Amino acid sequence: MANTSPAYVLVLQHWHKQLSQSSPGRLAIGAVIVVMGLWAACYPLITTGLSYAPHLTFAAIRATIAGAALLMVAGLVRAPMPRGRKIWGWLCVTGFGATTLGYFGMFHAAEFVAPGFATVIANSQPLIAAVLAHAILKERLGSRAYIGLAVGFLGVVTVATPGLISGDRASTAMGVAYVLVAAFGVSIGNVAIKRIAGALDPSVAMGWQLIIGAVPLALLALLTENPLTISWTPEFIASLLGLSLFGTALAFWLWQSALNVMKLSHANAFSFLVPFAGILLGALFFSEAITLPAVAGAMLAVVGVRFVLAPA
Questions:
Q1: pTM of the model
Q2: What ranges do the domains of the chain cover?
């Protein structure tokens, strides 16, 4: 019988199959690079949106829209839903880590530190994830990979240090603390979702973890904020949709698809490249200066990625 599905459904199914079956050296790496670019744009979009909405309300709406969009895609491609307590348990861990803690830290950090700076600090999470992946997923890295992680983190420190020793140290330190909460949460989420990689369609796994993670955010927003104070301006709507559909739904779908065929530590190493995009976006849209430490830190990040991906 001929396939009578709409054309857009056939396209979704085709690209889903291609990416899920790709080798780590081809489409998967390309997908990870796209994800890094999308994630680099998140902090500038958050900074824009926070002028019109309370922190946690904004975060909860973002996660809900992204999760709903992914579950709609799952329905279009007829992906099976999760079954079993073990799968749902890992989805809850992912949701609490990547979405609840990740967005809690990310949205509050934007109040204290500049978007480009926050983007860089957030990408210390590959180090945290590498430790967790070793302990939980039993991933083994060669000596060059560990050197690469150390060099990449040195790049992060190089970028962060000027902000910590000048200006409002207390405000910067608070911002860094919130970003590190987000990085720790994302690390937990990455390990948890890698734990069930291949067991669920990426749209199903990431859709449900976003919906699950949005629940605590929504409850905290109701307890501590007034969601009715949102100003639904064109700027806020553009920021919200950009974050939800591209920086979250598309990015998470590509990320989970890549993790189906890549080691978490290898995929995560690309996070050290995000400073390039973060610094550029900060300079273009928020008048952040491109300083020598920022350039040096980004260069160290590239060296770190090359070491991590080099054969052992």
A1: 0.77
A2: 9-140+167-264
